[in-house]
Amino acid sequence: xxxxxxxxxxxxxxxxxxxxxxxxxxxxxxxxxxxxxxxxxxxxxxxxxxxxxxxxxxxxxxxxxxxxxxxxxxxxxxxxxxxxxxxxxxxxxxxxxxxxxxxxxxxxxxxxxxxxxxxxxxxxxxxxxxxxxxxxxxxxxxxxxxxxxxxxxxxxxxxxxxxxxxxxxxxxxxxxxxxxxxxxxxxxxxxxxxxxxxxxxxxxxxxxxxxxxxxxxxxxxxxxxxxxxxxxxxxxxxxxxxxxxxxxxxxxxxxxxxxxxxxxxxxxxxxxxx
Length: 274
Description:
- It is a single chain.
- The protein is of the alpha+beta class and 274 residues long.
- The chain has one domain: Glutamine Phosphoribosylpyrophosphate, subunit 1, domain 1.
- It contains 7 helices and 13 strands.
- Strands 1, 4, 5, 6, 7, 8, 9 and 10 form an 8-stranded antiparallel beta sheet that branches.
- A hairpin with a 2-residue loop joins strand 4 and strand 5 (71-74).
- The longest helix has 22 residues, at 95-116.
- It is globular and about 65 Å long.
């Protein structure tokens, strides 16, 4: 009878929601959809995501611009999300597909906790995300690439940790700081000079915002602070207290400090020579 649940919904199976979905509704998975040649050029892309650790946590920030070739497709897209209570995911690449992947990953983590009665470890979450990216390889080969940055507070170590990925699902742990997206080279170069191991959460947030500003200065696909429209980067921090998003007021205060310092020194703060 139409509308009735099949037996799959009542059978105890895998703790992976993606595996369950592949059995009951495979067409709902992003990786199951065919892509036309050249579609990657016509798809809005999200760009630079930056993360930096500090004692007891990690901060992740993303700019708000999505581009489609040389066109600004969206000025206020959000690319950084809470994956669950203690972890954060930022997205770069094909924007629509990436946002869908984030939603699926959030359900994946919640489903696992409901089935197993306990959450995945941070490394387990990172590995589960790698598997999901690997399923998207077919679309990635046709230009619809999704490259996330995953970070969170690790209960096992009491520290913030950062994980990066490639288009094939390869997972790599990064240390101190990292960035992905079109402006990532410029952002990492900025953080190389700005990063300190004794940051607090607010200082780490300022450092990643400075890095995003430097990326936007050299990469046209990365959006800088839009002072006229009050569109600023999204900043999230993960600590033992959970994931917290910096409020609009907190972010605006950091942006005001940044703009005041850049008015005096347009290229940003300098690092000591020794």
